[in-house]
């Protein structure tokens, strides 16, 4: 996978976010359509767990309202050959009530037809997408990041191996900052509690 430092990558292992091959027509020319959801809206998913805390994320229903989706491409593992793209009509993206729906026609080339067969056979099932964030919010109580605005969607991708969070530099930078801030807050809270306890003990000695 060709990781770009300015982009975030998400592959969520949920049934609705898997590529599915459309049924072949019984008569006439065969079709090579695959479809699924790159992301769903307002549905928290756990990204990772650190020191017993589950850190979650969700995409706001309005996050893609102003996003640049001018010429998104369909790739494999976010790299290499383009199998479909918006500009030639072989890739369609639609933001509906559920999420970002993807429909791709993989009949253009021999390589894209081979990708279709891999998806149809269940050898490649997962979908990922690459994007940049324009705005977000963080809830300390639930440890949930809400992406409120997406700046640009670069590609949707069939993936065989999930993206490694350690190589997703943009996401890692964000979550490292969150964890550091929470650890610092816990340290300060502990220091304040210890100080209060010391004062209580001193006051007990004075009042005896």
Give an overview in words:
The protein is α+β, with helices and mostly antiparallel strands. It has one domain (8-165). 24% of the residues lie in helices and 38% in strands. It is built from 2 helices and 11 strands; from the N terminus they run E-E-E-E-E-E-E-E-E-H-E-E-H. The chain has helices at 110-120, 169-207; strands at 8-10, 20-21, 33-40, 45-50, 53-59, 73-76, 79-85, 91-95, 99-105, 126-139, 144-159. Strands 1, 4, 5, 6, 7, 10 and 11 form a 7-stranded mixed beta sheet that branches. A 4-stranded antiparallel beta sheet has the order 2-3-9-8, with helices on one face. The longest helix has 39 residues, at 169-207. The protein starts with 7 loop residues before the first strand and ends with a helix. The relative contact order is 0.20. The mean pLDDT is 84.
Helix and strand layout, with pairings?
Layout: E1 8-10, E2 20-21, E3 33-40, E4 45-50, E5 53-59, E6 73-76, E7 79-85, E8 91-95, E9 99-105, H1 110-120, E10 126-139, E11 144-159, H2 169-207
